[in-house]
UniProtKB/TrEMBL annotation:
Domain Serine-threonine/tyrosine-protein kinase catalytic: 6-100
GO MF annotations, alphabetized: protein kinase activity
InterPro entries: Kinase-like_dom_sf, LRR_receptor-like_kinase, Ser-Thr/Tyr_kinase_cat_dom
Protein name listed in UniProt: Serine-threonine/tyrosine-protein kinase catalytic domain-containing protein
């Protein structure tokens, strides 16, 4: 917001990208305006209504037993943590990568269990 560029801005942008990818909504969507943003839209849906805001293309073709709701919740929460208003409250890039690997690990662990 008019300050010096920093990695905190990159983390913010990555958080918005995560929210866009998993909700299928852009921050410029007609749904959003004034104080109602993509971040608030996401916060209001978590944790109980995560499937209601998920991009419908994510919901098709998944195996029975895949913990989609849990994974979506984790990814969207990560996106929100990247989008914290104050840069010093945002995750570091290192923390984001660590969280993504953790989520990925849970996903593949769940897939191995379902296949057995």
């Amino acid at each position: 917001m008019g300050g010096q560029p920093s990695i905190h801005g990159d983390v913010y942008s990555f958080g918005v990208l995560l929210l866009e990818m998993f909700t299928g909504k852009r921050p410029s969507n007609e749904l959003f305006g004034g104080n109602f943003t993509l971040q608030i839209y996401t916060k209001l849906a978590l944790p109980e209504n995560v499937l209601d805001i998920a991009d419908k293309s994510l919901l098709s073709g998944l195996r029975v037993g895949f913990p989609l709701e849990v994974c979506l919740k984790l990814v969207l929460e990560l996106g929100l943590r990247c989008c914290e208003e104050f840069p010093m409250n945002r995750l570091t890039v290192r923390e984001v990568v660590k969280q993504l690997y953790t989520i990925k690990g849970r996903f593949f662990k769940a897939r191995r269990i379902v296949r057995r």
